[in-house]
Amino acid sequence: MLPLNPALLSGEDYLFARIAAAAAAEQLRCPHRPVLSLGIGDVTRPIAPVASEAMRTAAAELASEGGQRGYGPAAGYPFLQRAIAARYDGLPCPVTPAEITVTPGSKEAIGALFSLWDCQVPVWVCDPAYPAYRAAAEAAGHPVFSLPCREKDGFLPRPEAVTQPGLIVLCTPNNPTGAAMDLPEMTCWVRFAGESGSLLLVDTAYAAFLTGEALPRSIFAVPGADRCAVEIGSFSKSDGFTGVRCGWVVLPEKTGCGAAWRCRLGSHSNGVSYPVQRAAEAALSPTGLRQRQQALAVYRQNAENMLHAFRQMGLTCAARRPGCEAPYLWVRCPDEQGSWYWFHRLLRECGVVCAPGAGFGTMGEHWLRFTAFGDPRTTAEALRRMTRLFPAKA
Ligand code: PLP
Q1: pLDDT attached to residue 68
Q2: How far apart, in Å, do the first and last CA atoms of the chain sit?
Q3: Is the pLDDT of residue 14 over 90?
Q4: Gap from CA of 388 to ligand 1 centroid (Å)
Q5: 71: CA distance to ligand 1 center in Å?
Q6: Which of 99, 127, 249, 304 could bridge across to 146 with cysteines, CB 3.0–4.6 Å?
Q7: What element of type H or E holds 147?
Q8: 105 CA distance to ligand 1 centroid (A)?
Q9: Ligand 1 touching residue 242 (CB < 6 A)
Q10: Contacts of residue 120, Cβ cutoff 8 Å, sequence gap at least 6
Q11: What is the SS3 assignment for 197?
Q12: DSSP state at residue 48
């Protein structure tokens, strides 16, 4: 057998595959008690009616005489590039439609981006963070280093921790901690990247969960970011597209990476399907954005109920900045036992799935992540079951 890519042979399954396997085993062990998931961050609200309608219309168009579109442009249809670029209007760094690439989700984009640079370029990844960053960077052959995100720093990374220039992956608001950067913090990172010759890869998958004006939704709110930052966005969590698959990359020409990116796109991608791009365009229309808010309100209410219930159970939740309504609660384990221990106890004793913090990095140990993306009734039932393990205080 030919040697396989060693980065794919760590022996450990992807975190969410491990969680799903444990949940399935518990369901077999206890078939009469449905396992309830506050684990994987998957959406439960329907997609916006206007997006669904746009998909239906586009599918009918493809089936009509003369409506065949063949392969689409690898970087996305101009109508969607324009709609996405318009979201950046008014920021200090203008974003043009040509700098937008539509992708089949942000996970795919993250994997593709790591192939743009020489594999000796170091990649700096927050700890704790969405586990796909490290896995994708390692699979592309990059050396990967951790950027600790400590509780005393509000779970945000600090530029001083970066000891050699490289690709620096940031996510705001962060999964799993819900930490969100303010403008001065983003400005610090842009200055640092510019001075050190680094490049920021900024994941904004949860930007729609920011409210008010205090916290920026894009790195391009910082003047000069278009020389040293690439941004990744997603319709998954904001518009219920986790299964529909649509995201985007903003790769400013001033970064000098455009030619390599176009070369990669040309040889690796045939873009995202036409109906999906029409649905994404509709999701960004005024009606789509209004319908988005209805779904987000459900998740926000879940998060509020969870916060209240956890506090009553005597559990400590990481503080969140005003204006950040990230759909995850980051909860400290009740004692010195590790996060996998508490994951298994919750699963076995309550039939409730969470995500163990250690799965997001070593700094995530002793924390648990709970998602607010659940159906409200399921979430309420999961919270009720948890009081068996953590009796609510009067
Ligand atoms: N980025 C972060 C921080 C995530 O948490 C996730 C999914 O959970 C993704 C990206 C992937 O999203 P997508 O569905 O767009 O691939």
Answers
A1: 97
A2: 63
A3: no
A4: 32
A5: 26
A6: 127
A7: strand 144-148
A8: 8
A9: yes
A10: 142, 143
A11: coil
A12: P
